[in-house]
Design a protein that fits this description.
Largest sheet: 8 strands, parallel, barrel
Distance between the termini: 22 Å
Low-confidence stretches: none
Pfam family, one: Bac_luciferase
Domain Luciferase-like: 11-333
Strand content: 15-25%
Number of helices: 12
CATH architecture: Alpha-Beta Barrel
InterPro entries: DMSO2_SphG, Luciferase-like_dom, Luciferase-like_sf, SsuD_RutA_monooxygenase
Shape: globular
CATH class: Alpha Beta
Helix content: 40-55%
Structural class: alpha/beta
GO molecular function: alkanesulfonate monooxygenase activity
CATH topology: TIM Barrel
Keywords: Flavoprotein, FMN, Monooxygenase, Oxidoreductase
Order of helices and strands: EHEHEHEHHEEEHEHEHHHEHEH
Length: 369
């Protein structure tokens, strides 16, 4: 599971559109739906077009272009039961979940799906979702300290009996979960993802997670994060894999792809983007070194609300494939893709882009021998 050893093949995931509004906050046409029937067909299409993972989003309150949402863990289980190979990553919030309760749900979901359930720990960026529910809103680094304990506790419950844990946020006393998930030597527990950009997020990823998920970044941004993540992981005798968010616009010509990006931004829902910007930029700027998520995002970046345009997976299939392999060369293990029209574009990606990625990977392996 090392970010220091480049894998033979990069993996692909897609954002599950389980919230309304698609993956861009824009009035451009998006032939994408948040409803169950659409998402079942999409999941089946994705697993037949080279996608190994799907990430279900977590939003609780109607807001900022996402008026309607399906809950992430239950929706993930529904998609797991409708597919054969696809792995579902359910985004969850410490502070709104107790780790033992989630561990129980996750063990059941993992067994029912034959070992395909995992979680992405989101440490909290939308203050109103906590305060409107009467839950405590912690300072940035405290939220990540809580997430670190959350990751430790849930891994212990999934892999050990008679668990005792004495933390600042969680107290577990002689607790045993049975049945446990379908743990194997290759996957000793359902995979644990830590999302974020900040120094605290990188520390959690290196110390506690199996995977680190980054917002959209260019080559320099990925290199900086990987260097930090690897340093932390080495200090704790661990190995962690790296996933990168990117909004993919692959078209037959570069001009068509760039025109699509231009139209998305020109038709941005400005009040929704500005509202989102105001809600989230405090999360990044609250960090001491200003490296948190969205701390330096522009208006254009936030039209894709996880900075997906920054990764620049935009152009012809050849250009997109070459850039993906360049990220892999840096140490990226997985690309998490968002799309404008999910169903047809995931099919296009599987037909036009993925074969080129595999050809480039194979050529580099031959050249390295």
């Amino acid at each position: 599971m090392s970010t220091e050893k480049i894998a033979d093949q990069i993996k692909f995931a897609y954002w599950v559109p389980n919230v309304s509004g698609g993956l861009v906050t824009s009035d451009i046409e998006q032939r994408t739906s948040w409803d169950y029937e659409y998402n079942v067909k999409l999941a089946q299409t994705a697993e037949n077009n080279g996608f190994e993972y799907a990430l279900s989003q977590v939003r609780y309150e109607a807001s900022y272009g996402a008026e309607f949402q399906h809950e992430s863990t239950s929706f993930s289980l529904a998609l797991l039961l409708a597919t054969q190979k696809l792995k579902l990553i359910a985004a969850v919030h410490p502070g709104l979940w107790h780790p033992a309760v989630l561990a129980k749900f996750g063990a059941t979901a993992d067994i029912l799906s034959g070992g395909r359930f995992s979680i992405n720990v989101v440490s909290g960026w939308f203050k109103d979702e906590f305060t409107h529910l009467g839950e405590q809103w912690l300072e940035h680094d405290e939220r990540y300290r809580r997430s670190g304990e959350f990751l430790e506790v849930i891994r212990k419950i999934w892999t050990e009996d008679d668990v005792d844990y004495r933390g600042d946020f969680y107290r577990i006393h002689d607790f045993t979960l049975k049945p446990k998930p379908l743990n194997t030597p290759e996957r000793p527990n359902p995979e644990l993802f830590q999302g974020g950009n900040s120094t605290a997020a990188r520390s959690n990823g290196g110390r506690f997670a199996d995977w680190y998920f980054s917002n959209g970044k260019d080559f320099d941004g990925v290199t900086e994060q990987l260097d930090d993540l690897r340093s932390v992981a080495r200090a704790h005798d661990r190995e962690v894999r790296f996933g990168l968010n990117g909004f993919i616009i692959a078209r037959d010509t570069e001009a068509e792809a760039r025109d699509t990006l231009r139209e998305i931004i020109e038709k941005a829902n400005r009040p929704a983007v500005e509202g989102f910007r105001g809600a989230v930029q405090q999360a990044g700027s609250a960090t001491g070194d200003k490296k948190g998520m969205w701390a330096d995002s522009s208006f254009e970046d936030l039209v894709q609300y996880n900075d997906g345009f920054r990764t620049q997976l935009i152009g012809t299939p050849e250009q997109v494939a070459e850039r993906i392999v360049a990220y892999k060369r840096l140490g990226v293990d997985l690309v998490l893709g968002g799309f404008l029209h999910f169903q047809e574009e995931i099919e296009y990606f599987g037909e036009k882009v993925l074969p080129l990625v595999r050809e480039l990977e194979a050529a580099e392996q031959v050249a390295a021998v």
